[in-house]
Specification:
0% strand; mainly alpha; 19 helices
Amino acid sequence: MAITEHDSAATDAPQQVKKKDRTHWLYISVIAAVVLGAIIGLVAPDLGKALKPLGDGFVALIKMIIAPVIFCTIVLGIGSIAKAATVGKVGGLALLYFISMSTFALALGLIVGNIIHPGEGLDLQPYDPSKPASSNASVDFFMSLIPGSLPVLPTLVVALLVGFALQGMGKSGEPVLNGIQAIQKVVFRIMMMIMWVAPIGAFGAIAAVVGATGWAAIGSMAILMGAFYLTCIIFIVFVLGTLLRLVTGLNIFLLLKYLAREYLLIFSTSSSESALPRLIAKMEHVGVSKPVVGITVPTGYSFNLDGTAIYLTMSALFVSTAMGMPMNLGEQIGLLVFMIIASKGAAGVTGAGLATLAAGLQAHRPELLGGMGVIVGIDKFMSEARALTNFTGNAVATLLIGKWTHEVDLDQAKAVLAGERPFDEALMEESMH
């Protein structure tokens, strides 16, 4: 019977890869759409500008789903905080560290964005929901089919109140939490359905922008992507690397080498979720105790999204600069505070990061939503760096919290990272049971 179970566990991996392949096709479709849109914008600018309603329609769909995403994730997030905090010292320490690092990453994104000013010279048009997207009657009809959105900040306040109320109800609030969890699955399924329209939205948005501004649009998008990748590298090597060296004495480059196989898996799927079971097994093998790994890694996947945090603030600054409406310091700080709360719901679901970004823009400057179509086009190019940074941040966090709670064997960690005690792949099968 044990052999059968192991066989079934072994066959699970190909099935998972098969499931991820559909998302991979989405990734390829968006890249193809961006390239095609850029070519049309350069070769036939007038046609490119005429395709703008495709991008506007996609932005309207994202806008429609913002409030349900924010409501469900914040209510359930507060429940998760309560559960994590109840596991004592480890949970409390992990949450404090996660909130601090996410805030630092968001601030780093703002600093870099203010230095490089991505999006300068694009002159994107403001989004005006009351203005018809086109004089074409068919386009106007289809745009009118997309429902309007609920205001984001009141939704956030209601979600916080509901979350804390359910937390205060204890056991009697669990059925409601379970119901909201079921609703969240429906909302995220709708989000995935919307994301399958992303290639069309990206095609229209990029064609319109490149048609209006030519090579300037391509240059600005390349600058944003390059700056984002560079910021992620700086964050991993200098911020996380320094913390790891000071607290544990371990080398960040040896840790990156140890997790190389997981990085390949993440790179091929654009999601750090795919490597979650492997990270748990590898962190236990490196010498962190099972309870610390069991609390820190899953909680980190919801609350420690360093790459997503950098992406949110840099993309928001890109949109505001590209539209010729740069945010002042007060608005940037307000955006930072909003993103600290809202980014806790941006984990694990394709498009949730985009919804969080749209929520931040709508809450502070609704007219900036018109620039979202361009971000959709280049979002996929930045998804690997986001996922890799999130994953590395959680691996480092597990080692740091293990050290702070005296639940890590540093001799084992040094031997493993030096390659003296290689990870046994058979451990992966054991961790599945």
